[in-house]
Amino acid sequence: MKKIVLTALSIVVLAGTFTAAQQGQRREPDPRSMGGGDCRDNPYNCADAPNPIPATNNVWLEEMTWMDVRDALKAGKTNIIISTGGIEPNGPWLVTGKHNYVLHANCEAIARKMGNALCAPIVKYVPEGDIEKKTSHMASPGTISMREDTFRAVLRDAAESLQAHGFKNIIFIGDSGGNQAGQKAVAEALTAKWAGKALALHIAEYYDYASVAAYMKDHGIVDGKSDGMHDDPIITLNMFIDDPNSVRFNERVKAGKATINGVNVGDKAKNTALAKQIVEFRATKTIEAINKAIANKGKATTSAK
Prior knowledge:
Blueprint: H1 2-25, H2 66-74, E1 79-84, H3 98-114, E2 117-119, H4 148-164, E3 169-174, H5 180-194, E4 199-202, H6 209-217, H7 233-240, H8 249-255, E5 259-260, E6 263-264, H9 268-295
Parallel strand pairs: 1-2, 1-3, 3-4
Antiparallel strand pairs: 5-6
Helix pairs in contact: 3-7, 3-9, 4-5, 7-9
């Protein structure tokens, strides 16, 4: 029995000695380290390591390496756009990610036209109705809704993460009506919190479909009587330019259903030309509003119609 006790004590002592040795060997963090590893183990983990490959011609944060982002910030790309879309029903032709396809085309156009901006990953989950009661879009299968406080928390954490890394203007654009109030509240709260170090901007003017429709009425799209679906020619074409399959283009043409509100969307070349005008108009209008908001230090300039 005494032998067993002594053996057990020896094991405990040895374990303690091993743990202490491990702790003694543990290195203090190297402040130069980033990129997922220790600077002392690989020079590519060091903050000032040169990028070993040519700079990317990309505006999407998630498609860039940390070195790409670092170098973009140093080059003056200190504006970043957080766009919010949704997952909701949109009739028999448009996929549930409608707003996200629109934003994929528009955010890229805005960022490239600005020249000093990047696009954060699209926030695809937004308020779409009460989850338990299945109100609003939650009545339809496939819808994913966020509670308002969850949505705002996501926006806040994303924006604060980006500001912490040196972005000066965090720009919120939303392609759905239910996204606007949350964006506005978070932007105002963060701008106040940052007290001049950075701005969070809610750009209400981006979500002004009435002005887009009015502009396109004089440029080839005369919207007729509504088909009574959550769809219209502007939305369809804005999605089409990003991915024709998102509006089931080939299937609609084959089925003889390539119209919406009396507007034919069955001509691929015509669709492309009209869609480019839509994206260009929306990008230009949004950039004008962004510049005004920056000059105004984040104070509201106007409201979307």
